[in-house]
Amino acid sequence: MKPEETIAVPEQANSPRLVLIADDDISSRKLLGHLMSKMGHSVLFAEDGLNCIRLIREQPVDILLLDINMPKKNGFDVLSHLAEQGLKTPVIMVTASDEIEIAVRCIKMGASNYLTKEKLSGESLRIAVSGAIREFDLKKEVRELKKELLTKEVFRYIIGRSDELKRAIEQAMQVMETDLNVLLLGESGTGKELFAQAIHEGSRRKAGPFVSINCAAISNELADSILFGHKKGAFTGANSDHVGFFEQADGGTIFLDEIGDMNSEIQAKVLRVLQEKKIRRVGEKAERAVDFRVVSATNQDFARAISNNTFREDLYYRLEEFPISIPPLRERTEDIRMLARHFLEQFCSANNLGQIQISEKALSNLGSYHWPGNVRELKNAVQRAAVTSRGQLIEQLKSSLPGNRHAGRIQEQGSAEVKPATIDTTSVHKENSVTMDELEESAVRKAFSHANGNASKAAESLGISRATFYRKLKKYGISE
Questions:
Q1: Which whole-number Å values give the CA distances from 193 to 155, 188, 450, in the listed order?
Q2: Distance CA 253, CA 178 (A)
Q3: How far apart are CA 193 and CA 273, in angstroms?
Q4: Which domain holds residue 448?
């Protein structure tokens, strides 16, 4: 390396960066640090490879000037660590070796340039650093553009610009390319299944199947057959071989919706499959290996469920390798206008209703409503308003909200108890003759009757999930 005083360093055109200099020779560290400082960069020092890796873990480094021969871990070990961690830090090798084979090996391992100390000059270092920064910035810009395009593609059905929604999407983007199990937490109607589908579409499993299961609807008696499949003749009525949900998801993603409502006995069976990635069809002796990724969703409070022994703690920790909270609509009110217009346009187009608009006054009023049914409730309200609108302009949506159509409106507040909402309680308090349970039972019975015994339609009209509606039927002894 040429003496420091003979090196003239031109002014650095790039913005200041954080440079890590890893070299076991103190004089080399000082000289390189001086040159980087003159270029306007901040500098960190590491005297060996192990300390270099530690500093990289502790904070993001913009450029790494790396020696090869260092104690504890050498330069090759550091390059391997960067590759294993998927770090894109630009690396410039600054070393005493001028062997072509070593230089080629470094470049193949990800180094952007290779400089020998003997021939190093301020100008060659400046050019190398500037080039590494330009290349890194260009690659970063390309990655950001690809990420933006991917986000628009896989999250195309998730409408909104609020910060709360963006945070949830960003978390999903971070985890989608991994095989970590994802747990989606959120109230009913927030779009958890749309997030699950987006995570699948953005993953390496996108060419594989996406299998969705409503865990609350699985009975104990049929669980083994539904989840794991059965062999022809395994039991009365098994007239052919059946492929279970987990086997159907082989090579893809299985979505366990409403996992918090799953029967405790079935939980043990699901835990075993998640641990071993093997299933055995009913009536068969041999096990089958299955390769799947799990995305699950719930609106339940797992802490309470585990405390009450209604949900297995070991299964919970298997499912929540990467939890994502989906915000309720009341926390992203700035998205309501966009969603309302989107649902109206979508519905009118699908039903040949022509061009119907929502008035500004109607849109403004939407933000003051609590939306216990979240995005699903908004969609239903917009569709009802479109059907009942007598002209080409929807003047108000208030009459289309469930609270104005059913005195016993039921809402779900995450994991809280289900309670009637948006009712005239003044007369109830005055008469003191009607309990909340009676109001709730009345609303459930009326909704079930109006839907002609269709549980899905009845649940939708009340703005609650089908699983919750089934629980209400059972609670009040209402037969299907």
A1: 12, 10, 27
A2: 12
A3: 22
A4: 409-480
CATH number of the structural domain spanning residue 57: 3.40.50.2300
Task: Name residue 288's beta-bridge partners.
Answer: 279
Place of tokens 């020998």: 116
Instruction: List the one residue out of 426, 378, 433, 376 whose CA is nearest residue 401.
Output: 378
Cα distance between residue 444 and residue 472, in whole Å: 7
Contact indicator for 199, 184 with CB cutoff of 8 Å: no
**Cα-to-chain-centroid distance, residue 211:** 17
SS3 222: coil
For residue 282, what is the DSSP state? B
101 lies in the same domain as 169: no
**What sign results for the dihedral spanned by CA atoms 267, 271, 274, 278?**
negative
One domain for residues 348 and 315 = no
Report pLDDT for 414: 36
Structural domain count of the chain: 4
Q: Per-residue DSSP letters for 126-146?
A: HHHHHHHHHHHHHHHHHHHHH
pLDDT digit string (tens) for 368-414?
A: 888 999 999 999 989 888 888 767 788 766 555 655 544 334 343 33
Tally the C-alpha atoms within 13 A of residue 438's C-alpha that lie toward its C-beta: 6
pLDDT of residue 398: 58
Beta bridge partners of 295: 182, 255
Average the pLDDT over 152-158 and give the result.
86
